[in-house]
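User: Hi! I have a protein structure encoded as tokens and I'd like to know what sequence might fold into it. I'm fairly new to this, so please keep things simple.
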């Protein structure tokens, strides 16, 4: 290969470029990015950047000198708009066409919006640095902030807004917060810290739309029963959509992401995917999945690049089989989750308790450990990652728990 193009200039794309150089690839690397910024870290956008504790220069993923050593040809500020798999080219919004020998798709995801979401002052999403800074400017003490969506990002924003002195209400259509990741019971248990800090949490509510206040500014959130929740600021946090629009007229299989095999190959020679946009078959869980978290993006960026190189050299690629891991900081709580919960597991709290706002819960199904949740218990949670990677039985998990109790 003479030219590898990486579409996506965030964490997964950067890790792919670093891996190519680490594994002695000396050809051209081109990174295409929709944002006109060098790679930066996204988790602080809903926390330390939003709070004002950090400024933009604190979240660069690498120092300029380290990026320079990678000898990357950056194409920033112009998103990819089309892929031609026959001629091995991509087209940018600027009209430029770039040829490639190898391609890594790491375009991440974009935020979901409400139907007919108006572009009013005070209406925000949080995905980019510009989004975070714009929202921060509106989080003034006493402001009435309504967060639509009680997922991890929504609750992080709610915690940060409350800490800045805002009045905060969270509206969620599901019966519990963080339900998709944790399940209803553990979602409620993990989010008790919000009630402690005076955040209003409402579940099983349906948003009908936004209500205008003064001309061009949001004034509230209308519910389907006619109630209007007053708001000076509305944050829409209802999930993300994989950024695959530019791939719709290709042979790639698109199904809530770019469908890949166990090695992250997207079904065509020399084309791989990584990060939020990648839907792959995880051998460890015997199922196809797409994971929207930092650790997976970092690991998959490296794995995709390594496998692209291996195949180009006539070597065998390696399956990417991993235990998903994510974390979320909300007020004083650090919520960490290992594994994958599909909703049919049984959750058992084995250390601590929700009343202490500190506990470990294990998810069991058919006699096997499937996932583990920790709330402010990192030292006791993380050993379960090894057990999950080994497909441990429930008995083996309880044996590990007994060592905590003994100490």
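Assistant: Happy to help. Inverse folding works backwards from shape to sequence: for each of the 407 positions I chose a residue that suits the local structure. Here it is:
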């Amino acid at each position: 290969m003479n030219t590898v193009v990486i579409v996506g200039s965030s964490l997964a794309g950067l890790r792919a470029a670093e891996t190519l150089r680490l594994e002695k690839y000396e050809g051209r690397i081109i990174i295409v990015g929709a944002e006109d910024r060098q790679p930066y870290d996204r988790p602080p956008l809903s926390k330390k950047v939003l709070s004002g504790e950090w400024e933009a220069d604190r979240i660069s993923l690498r120092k300029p000198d380290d990026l320079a050593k990678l000898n990357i040809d950056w194409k920033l500020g112009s998103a990819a708009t089309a892929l031609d798999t026959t001629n091995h080219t991509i087209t940018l919004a600027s009209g430029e066409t770039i040829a490639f020998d190898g391609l890594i798709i790491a375009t991440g995801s974009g935020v979901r919006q409400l139907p007919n979401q108006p572009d009013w002052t005070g209406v925000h999403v949080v995905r980019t640095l510009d989004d975070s800074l714009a929202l921060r400017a509106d989080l003034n003490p006493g402001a009435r902030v309504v967060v639509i969506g009680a997922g991890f990002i929504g609750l992080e924003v709610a915690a940060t807004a409350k800490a800045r002195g805002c009045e905060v209400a969270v509206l969620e259509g599901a019966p519990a917060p963080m339900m998709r990741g944790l399940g209803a019971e553990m979602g409620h248990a993990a989010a008790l810290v919000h009630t402690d800090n005076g955040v209003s949490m409402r579940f099983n509510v349906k948003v009908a739309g936004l209500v205008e206040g003064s001309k061009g500014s949001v004034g509230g959130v209308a519910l389907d029963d006619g109630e209007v929740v007053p708001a000076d600021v509305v944050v829409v946090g209802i999930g993300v959509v994989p950024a695959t629009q530019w791939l719709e007229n290709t042979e790639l299989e698109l199904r809530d992401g770019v469908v890949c095999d166990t090695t992250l190959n997207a079904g065509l020679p020399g084309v791989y995917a990584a990060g939020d946009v990648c839907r792959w078959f995880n051998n460890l869980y015997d199922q196809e999945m797409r994971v929207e978290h930092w650790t997976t993006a970092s690991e998959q960026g490296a794995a995709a690049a390594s496998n692209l190189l291996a195949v180009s050299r006539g070597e065998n690629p390696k399956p990417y089989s991993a235990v998903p891991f994510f974390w979320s900081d909300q007020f004083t709580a650090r919520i960490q989750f290992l594994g994958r919960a599909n909703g049919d597991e049984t959750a058992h709290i084995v250390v601590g308790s929700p009343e202490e706002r500190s506990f470990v819960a294990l998810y069991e199904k058919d006699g096997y450990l499937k996932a583990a949740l920790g709330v402010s218990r990192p030292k006791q949670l993380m050993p379960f990652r090894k057990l999950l990677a080994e497909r441990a039985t429930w008995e083996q998990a309880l044996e590990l728990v007994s060592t905590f109790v003994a100490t």
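A useful reference point when you look it over: The first strand starts at residue 3 and ends at 7. Feel free to ask if any position seems puzzling.
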